[in-house]
Structure formats: structure tokens, C-alpha cells
Specification:
Chain A: This is FtsX-like permease family protein. The complex is a heterodimer of chains A (about 450) and B (about 260). With about 450 residues, chain A is an all-alpha fold. Chain A folds into two domains: about 180 residues, no CATH class; about 250 residues, no CATH class. Chain A is built from 18 helices and two strands. Chain A has a two-stranded antiparallel sheet. In chain A, strand 1 and strand 2 form a beta hairpin. Chain A is globular and about 75 Å long. By secondary structure, chain B is an alpha/beta fold. In chain B, helix 5 packs parallel to helix 6. Chain B is globular and about 45 Å long. The chains are: A mainly alpha (about 450), B alpha/beta (about 260).
Chain lengths: ~450, ~260
């Protein structure tokens, strides 16, 4: 062998400029194959649903802000509260989609590091890909929004259907939403990449279950007391605007408390379930939750908010119903509209939660396909795998739903009275909401079963 | 217990081998194709209790397909797999998916290259899992699992999660899981493929000790000649056919090739 044959080949043009051809590399590695199709399609679908729901909600809020009727300011305030309540599950859904995109980084690292790519290149590629997938998803979401407009337009406000046109946000807002979704994806991917903890041996480090710091208890108790006193003082005030502001703040505090103690409470419940687990599926489910109570909370917290809203809203509806006869026609119409608004808010947050659970479940199956295939080979019945998967979500879901309902009940207690919470109309709304939420999530988990079937039936091709 | 009874006669007559012991698992005229490629082109094999058989061959020679077919993971296109259980001969080929799943769960054990243990569970829980699936109460399942872990040198590591164990330790947990039900045949697919040579040696000793040492059979798919050398017989495949059966110090077969 001569020295000339050992000389390295001339550098490629991109290397000469000192920059890796990130765009071209990303494209090369993103071309859909059997394995990547689902990984790219799932977040795209989630981003599409996020965009469509965001546009519908935005359209509704903008519609109220265009109104010039007597009670317009009241509608506007209420629509903003609904928007704020929907932001939590919306961000969770967008975040789930973005994290799913970012997970591809692990596979990439192995391949790309071997051919000499720096972690920076890999990071930029993943962020670029997440953003591209999000943008495509957002564009599909705009189409979904256009299709949904006539259906949502059938909703009656002020005694008549609002019509599809009322929900039109305009090209400027659509462009802004697409940009916002793309930005959310880019930021989540970048943050997600920093949070991925891989030891040199590639072993995922254990995320320890969060312990309840005493400060959280103090903050929670003080916040509940403050909200309680604040809401209790409402009875003496007849000002609508003040009522709404205080109610909105109370809701915000409730949501904050739920997020503060939610992961810890889920961890505690799972530890209890682990000790009592008698079957393989219960054991695996409890351990899966304990692996990361925070991640479990992220999946179910949207329903926690919904159940919390349902209690507060359900009480509000029955509170208003009690005085049906005392009000004039415009006020009764206002009450009917508030009820419609509450139900629409609850329905949309359910949709968001179901969608993010679906995305997370499908991603979870694809992430762990080797494990599921090996368990199937060991002879673990498919039913045990499915049971542990759904138990790991539905257990915390039920726990969270009722826990949140309790917090909501405590907060609205001073506003109305205990009797009112148990008023028939209120009860129907609350129970209906909780059952619908659990059923929708259960249905979503069931809907991901074909992904498992595919993984198990074609282990070599996945 | 439907897969143990009634014994069904098959054409899977075990070929003569040097073990001189009754076979516990036989494959006869096994054929398996994937699309246009033939993975198995008429393989005959018989494995006796207390025997360790290494299946070797180049990539694509059909060795993993043979293991999957013998273990009832993948049904063959034609041919028969017979398993001699305590209550008689069982025709694995005639079983449906759920019966084969049950057979794998209750009569066979498996060790894969990466261990493939459930990462959230502790070493003890992973080992106890097959017993819990078989309906044992958790306490008893964990008691038996504990026994195996101690026997395999993992005493004191019961509560560790899989990520907290070394590759060799994780593989021993997989061995404990494969043997906790008293499986009479253990299938191992490249069990030492991800380990360094010293750890590989230890794991192979543990695997042999817990299977052959108990009078059970071990079927190992491997690329590693040192692993194969520790088995009592080496079966080499090429293009889906058996090239040779090599016993320790003896060679036999249609196209005998000594290792």
C-alpha cells in the first residue's frame, strides 16, 4: 500500500465551508420507510388536531369580540376564560407531538455519530425535522378547520346558529397559528433534546418519583384558603365583571394546585397499587406509573382540568337554573349561551386529552417494540400486555378525575352550597362529563391496539 | 392443559444422534419461506433432554428461523415440530396461536441477546413474571424467583431495576426468568452477543448450569465459536439446510464438516 492510497478523499463542498449539510442529511434520513412512517405521521396528526382546535377556539373568541350587543363584554370575558382553560391541554397535546418527534434523536445518534456527525448536527437535524413535521401537520389542521367550520357553525348562540362564517379567523391569524405551532415544535424539540438523559452506556437513567416537598403543601393550602375566601366574598357583590374575574382567578389557582400536587398524588396512589398488585398486569401497570408519575400526570392532567371545570361549571349551570323564572328573556338566553359555552369547552378539552393519549400510547408501543415482541415470544398473553397498558393510564385517570372534582367542589363550595352541587342538573352534567372523559380516553387506548398488532405480527419489518 | 393431551402422532421422527437419549423436541422436514427467500428448506433435528445444541451458520442461513419454528413462535410452512412433554408427544405444528403462546409460557424458556426484560420492573419482579402469568400467587412467585436469583449469584440485587444492572447481570436475570417455571427446553438467541468475552463466559456457564445442569435441554443460536464449543452438539446451517451435526469429538451428518 502506498501513501497515496491512504490519503483521505477530498472533502465534500459542505465540509469545506465548515458546515454539515443539515438540510440534505435531514431529508435523507426522514424519507418515509416502514419504520419512520408512523413516527412521522403520529406527531403530524397531533399537530393537525392541535391547529384545527386552536383555530376553532380562536374563531369563537374572535366572534364574541366582534359582537356589539348589550352583553358583549360579558361574552368576551367568558370566551377568554374558556381560552385560558383550553391552553393547558392544548400545550400538553402540542408538547406530546413535539416530544414524539424529538425521540427520533436517539436512533439518529447511533447512526450519525458513527459516521462522524457532532451532537450539534444531530440536534439541529431533529429540531428541523420536528418543525417541518409540525408545519405540515398545521397545514393539514387548517384544512380540518375549514371542514369543521360548518359543523361547529351549527352551535346556537343568541338563539340562532352562529354559522360557519362567524368562525373565520382570517388569513393573518391562520398564518400566525401555523407559525406558532411550528415554533412550539421547535422549542419543545430543543428543550426535549436537552432533557433526554442517556448515560454513556445508553441506559436510560431512572427518573425518581417526585417527593412532596413541604413547601408544596403550604403553597397548596394557602392557595386553597385564598381562593376559598375570595370566592366566598362573591356572594355580596352583584357585579358580573368582578364575579367573572374572581371566578377566573379561582379557576387558575385550582389548575395551579392540581399541577403542583398531581404528579405526587399519582405517585403515592401507584405505590399503594404496587404493594397490592396480585396479577402481572397490575404489577406492570403500577411500575409503569412509578417510572415517571410526571409523565403520567402530563397525559391525564387535561382530563383533570376538564373534570375540575365540569364541577365548577356544572354548579354554575344549576346555580343559574334555580333562578330561571326570575330572569327576563335576554338573561335566560345569556344563561343558555353560557351553558353551551361550558359544554363546548369541556368537549374540546376532552378531544385534546384523548388525542394526546392516543399519540403517547402509539409512540410508547413503537418505542418499545422490541420489548413487546420479546414478551409475546415468551408467551405473555396479548390481553395481559393490553391490560397493563390501559391500566397504567385509566388508573391514574380515574384517580385524577375524582381528585380534581373534589378540588373543584371545595372551591365552588362557598359560591353556591353543598346542596346545589348535588342538584340534579348539576349532577347530570358532572357525571356525564367524567364518564365521557374516561370513555373517550379508553376508546383512544383501544384505538391504538392495531399498532400493537402490527408490531407483533411483523416484528422484522418494524 | 390442552397442549399436553392428547399426544398426537407425527411424522417427525427424530434422526439418530449421538446423545443416545430420548428426544424432547423434534423438527422434521421443516420448510419456511418469507416471500421469495427460503429460510428453511427441509430441516430435520432432534434435541434430547440434558443436551445443549448450538445452531450456527452465516447470517441468513435460517438459524433464527429454525429456533423460532422449534419454539412455536413462527409456524413452519410444512413439516412437523414435536414436543415430548411429561404427558406425551405434542404436535406443536397443529397448535393455534394461543395454544403455542401457552406452550411457550409454561413449557419453554427464552433468553434473548439484549435480555429484553421489562425496564420498570425490578430483577425479582421480572423473574417472577412467568410464574405470575401461570397463576401463582405473587408471594410464592417472588419466593421462587428469589431462589433462582440467589442461585445465579444475584443475591442482594433483587430490588434493582434492569437499568441498574450490568449487561451480564441482566442476562442472568433473563436466565432466571427462563428457568423459573422449570422449563424443560430453553431457547437462547445470541445470549452473549452483547457481552465482552469474560462476561460471556460467565453467562454461558450460568446458562448451561441452570439448564443442562438441571437435566433440561438448551438450544442456542450463536455466531460465537467459543459459545458453540461449550455445547454438547453443534448444528451448522447453510441456505436453510443442515450442513452438519458435530458432537464433541464426533462428526456425523450427510455432509460432515468438522468445526
Amino acid at each position: 500500500m502506498t501513501a497515496t492510497t491512504l490519503a483521505p478523499p477530498p472533502p465534500a463542498s459542505a465540509s469545506r465551508s465548515g458546515r454539515a449539510p443539515i438540510g440534505r442529511l435531514t431529508w435523507l434520513l426522514s424519507r418515509p420507510t416502514a419504520q419512520t412512517k408512523a413516527v412521522l405521521a403520529l406527531p403530524a396528526i397531533a399537530f393537525a388536531v392541535t391547529t384545527a382546535l386552536l383555530l376553532i377556539v380562536l374563531g369563537g373568541v374572535m366572534m364574541f369580540w366582534r359582537w356589539t350587543i348589550a352583553d358583549a363584554d360579558l361574552y368576551q370575558m367568558l370566551s377568554v376564560i374558556a381560552l385560558v382553560l383550553l391552553i393547558v391541554p392544548l400545550i400538553a397535546l402540542g408538547g406530546a407531538a413535539a416530544r414524539l418527534s424529538a425521540r427520533r434523536r436517539d436512533d439518529r445518534l447511533a447512526t450519525l455519530r458513527l459516521i462522524g456527525a457532532t451532537p450539534g448536527v444531530v440536534t439541529r437535524m431533529t429540531v428541523l425535522e420536528s418543525t417541518a413535521v409540525a408545519t405540515l401537520g398545521a397545514l393539514a389542521g387548517v384544512v380540518l378547520y375549514l371542514i369543521a367550520m360548518p359543523i361547529v357553525g351549527l352551535l346556537p348562540f343568541q338563539g340562532e346558529p352562529i354559522g360557519a362564517g362567524a368562525l373565520w379567523v382570517g388569513p393573518g391569524a391562520i398564518l400566525l397559528v401555523i407559525l406558532a405551532v411550528a415554533a412550539l415544535a421547535a422549542v419543545s424539540a430543543a428543550i426535549g433534546l436537552r432533557q433526554v438523559t442517556i448515560s454513556p452506556l445508553g441506559v436510560r437513567t431512572r427518573q425518581s418519583a417526585p417527593r412532596l416537598h413541604w413547601s408544596r403543601v403550604v403553597v397548596s393550602v394557602v392557595a386553597i384558603l385564598a381562593a376559598y375566601v375570595m370566592l366566598g366574598s362573591l356572594g355580596s357583590s352583584g357585579d358580573w365583571m368582578l364575579t367573572i374575574i374572581v371566578l377566573g382567578t379561582g379557576l387558575g389557582i385550582g389548575v395551579g394546585i392540581l399541577n403542583l400536587i398531581g404528579p405526587w398524588a399519582i405517585g403515592m396512589a401507584a405505590r399503594l397499587a404496587l404493594r397490592r398488585a396480585k396479577t402481572a398486569s397490575r404489577l406492570i401497570a403500577a411500575r409503569s406509573i412509578l417510572e415517571s408519575p410526571k409523565a403520567t400526570w402530563r397525559q391525564v392532567s387535561g382530563v383533570a382540568m376538564t373534570s375540575f371545570i365540569a364541577v365548577v361549571a356544572g354548579t354554575g349551570v344549576s346555580f343559574m337554573d334555580q333562578f330561571q323564572g326570575d330572569y327576563d328573556a335576554p338573561t335566560r338566553m345569556l344563561m343558555a349561551d353560557i351553558r353551551t359555552g361550558i359544554l363546548v369547552t369541556v368537549l374540546i378539552s376532552f378531544l385534546m386529552v384523548a388525542c394526546s393519549v392516543g399519540v403517547n400510547q402509539a409512540a410508547g408501543i413503537l418505542d418499545r417494540r422490541d420489548l413487546y415482541v420479546s414478551l409475546d415470544r415468551l408467551g405473555m398473553p396479548r390481553s395481559v400486555i393490553e391490560q397493563s397498558r390501559s391500566r397504567a393510564i385509566l388508573g391514574p385517570l380515574r384517580f385524577t378525575t375524582f381528585g380534581s372534582a373534589l378540588v373543584g367542589g371545595v372551591l365552588v363550595f362557598p359560591l353556591t352550597s353543598l346542596a346545589l352541587i348535588f342538584a340534579p342538573v348539576s349532577l347530570v352534567v358532572i357525571v356525564g362529563c367524567l364518564v365521557a372523559g374516561v370513555l373517550m380516553v379508553w376508546g383512544t387506548i383501544k384505538a391504538t391496539a392495531p399498532v400493537m398488532t402490527r408490531v407483533l405480527s411483523e416484528p422484522e419489518r418494524m | 392443559m390442552n397442549f399436553f393431551t392428547p399426544p398426537q402422532p407425527t411424522n417427525a421422527m427424530p434422526p439418530a444422534n449421538s446423545a443416545q437419549r430420548p428426544p424432547i423436541l423434534t423438527g422434521s422436514s421443516l420448510v419456511k419461506t418469507y416471500g421469495s427467500s427460503t429460510a428453511l428448506a427441509g430441516v430435520d433435528i432432534a434435541i434430547a433432554a440434558g443436551e445443549s445444541v448450538a445452531i450456527m451458520g452465516a447470517s441468513g442461513s435460517g438459524k433464527t428461523t429454525l429456533l423460532h419454528t422449534l419454539a412455536g413462535i413462527t409456524p413452519s410452512d410444512s413439516g412437523h415440530v414435536g414436543f415430548y412433554s411429561a404427558s406425551g408427544l405434542v404436535d406443536v405444528t397443529a397448535m393455534n396461536e394461543s395454544e403455542r403462546s401457552r406452550l411457550r409460557r409454561e413449557a419453554f424458556g427464552f433468553v434473548f441477546q439484549q435480555g429484553l426484560l421489562i425496564p420498570e420492573l425490578t430483577a425479582l419482579e421480572n423473574t417472577a413474571l412467568p410464574l405470575m402469568l401461570a397463576g401463582y400467587p405473587r408471594r410464592e412467585a417472588e419466593g421462587r424467583a428469589q431462589h433462582w436469583l440467589v442461585a445465579l449469584g444475584l443475591g442482594g440485587m433483587e430490588t434493582r431495576r434492569i437499568g441498574e444492572l450490568s449487561g451480564g447481570q441482566a442476562q442472568r436475570v433473563a436466565i432466571a426468568r427462563a428457568q423459573v417455571t422449570g422449563a424443560t427446553v430453553v431457547f437462547a438467541d445470541e445470549p452473549t452477543g452483547a457481552l465482552d468475552s469474560a462476561t460471556s463466559e460467565d453467562v454461558m456457564s450460568a446458562l448451561l448450569g441452570s439448564t443442562v445442569g438441571q437435566g433440561h435441554a438448551l438450544v442456542v443460536v450463536t455466531h460465537d465459536e467459543t459459545v458453540a464449543a461449550r455445547c454438547s452438539r453443534v448444528v451448522r446451517l447453510r441456505d436453510g439446510r443442515v450442513l452438519s451435526h458435530t458432537a464433541v469429538g464426533t462428526t456425523f451428518g450427510s455432509n460432515a464438516v468438522t468445526a
